[in-house]
Amino acid sequence: MGAASPAMWAGLVLVVLLAASGPASAGLPRFAEAPEYRNGDGCPAPVTGAGVCDPGLVHIAMTLDAHYLRGSMAASTRCSSTPPARSPSSSTSSPRRAAARRPSPSSGPPWPPPSRPCASRSTRSAPPVAGLISASVRAALEAPLNYARNHLADLLPRCVPRAIYLDSDVLAVDDVRRLWETRLPAAAVVAAPEYCHANFSRYFTEAFWDDPVLGARVFAGRRRAPFYFNTGVMVIDLRRWRVGNYRQRIERWMEMQKEKRIYELGSLPPFLLVFAGEIEAVDHRWNQHGLGGDNVFGSCRPLHNGPVSLMHWSGKGKPWDRLDAGKPCPLDHTWKSYDLYIGENDSSPASGPSRSALSSLVAW
């Protein structure tokens, strides 16, 4: 993404965790350099010599493997720090804030407001988890990548108090500092958008619900009723995570799954078993998920009703795959505006969204 002075990245740091199935290859894809943007006057100045321990930094963690590298590169061009035109004191989940403008894929320049690219400060390999992974409804859900987020608290420096975890198939179209400032009460370790109308029971097998020791007993006594939440966007208190040994709690459920099949859907159910009913709810605008369609067909889906702060291509269909196949969904064109990938047959490198195009947008 090009060299940058430390001052350029004040207020925001991106930590990438690499979950690779093999050694790095010389044949990795090429990517163009993202446009350079500098932080606005409202961003805090860095603490000299503090490095990653700077208390003014926003820590964003993304996990990736070779297939998701392209998605991560596009997402990293959309992580924004506090723009000077917006008040940093605004509430993260206030329903009174104006709704984001909807994308119009055929109307010219990229839809989201101007932002600055994130800095990639470190790349580390997640510990192996292959022995704990069970078969899922889709082979991609069995990749170790999906489980790397369980190890964030072990891999990140202990001076980092919290992190925003984002999947690699997202575009943040709002100031992520608002998400970062989500209040986590003492009883909560994770904050995420919660979906109360989803059929929570379908995330577990009949064998789970029929077991007298499992089933509803697992969720008894929690802060509130258990609901589905999507793990692709989470604010995690890393200190509380470590104290509560939450990685081990998740892995105990994975071990039980090996003995008795209690769920079908990869890495999500163990998170639900540990955190459903215990998380702090975040406004739905921070995870407009499901844009990749379902986990079998990957059909096109529109945005949900309501404001948009983050678009998430969860599901089988990834925008880069559909674009390469010549069968994109309408919203994939919005993602394409931030794609830095240089194809094998490209005669000239892509340069990502142009400054003129971004600067022509009106910040909302």
UniProtKB/TrEMBL annotation:
Pfam families documented for this protein: Glyco_transf_8
Sorted UniProt keywords: Glycosyltransferase, Signal, Transferase
Highest taxon above the source species: Eukaryota
Region (Disordered): 77-125
Pathway: Glycan metabolism; pectin biosynthesis
Recorded GO MF terms: glycosyltransferase activity
Transmembrane segments: none
Signal sequence, renumbered to the chain: 1-26
Skewed-composition ranges (Pro residues): 106-116
Compositionally skewed regions (Low complexity) per UniProt: 77-105
Class of the enzyme per the UniProt entry, highest EC level: transferase
EC assignment: 2.4.1.-
Family in the record: Belongs to the glycosyltransferase 8 family.
Protein's UniProt name: Hexosyltransferase
Organism expressing this protein natively: Zea mays
